[in-house]
Amino acid sequence: MTLDLVELVRKQLEALDRRDLDGVMSSVAEDSVLDGRAAGVFEGRAAIRGFLEDWFRALEELDYELEEVSDLGGGVVFAVVIQDGRPVGGDGRLRQREGWVYLWAGGSIARLTTSEVDQARAAAERLAQERE
Question: How far apart are alpha carbons 17 and 9 in whole angstroms?
Fold first, then answer.
């Protein structure tokens, strides 16, 4: 059976958009790593879940949009994700467009790295080439 990694990423983003932590975490490996550009590095399911709980609590409104997604081979998926939200008690908006590089292993996310879109795209392409 071949996993459709693009579809798995879509499902994860849909779960993020619903703030469905169990749905988001269902595809995260026990020893997964989240390297989140400004947020820092989180190692393991518990740390990643804790980060997401804090992120969801900090934003009264939060929408995720998947602008682009492609399977580059070797378990590497590149996505462009837009987050749009409003901090709790604030009038302003938070809007960020990032490149997300997923490394999948055995049907689970082993690592997710977020960064500026062009930088993430280049990193994803290099990683896919290395894993061929």
Answer: 12
What residue ranges in 2-132 does DSSP mark as E strands?
28-36, 40-43, 59-73, 76-87, 94-105, 108-115
Please name the residue that has the structure tokens 């995720």.
64
pTM value is 0.94
The 94-105 sheet, strands edge to edge: 40-43, 28-36, 108-115, 94-105, 76-87, 59-73
5-53 pLDDT, tens digit each: 999 999 999 999 999 999 999 999 999 999 998 789 999 999 999 999 9
Q: Are 9 and 69 in contact (CB under 8 A)?
A: yes
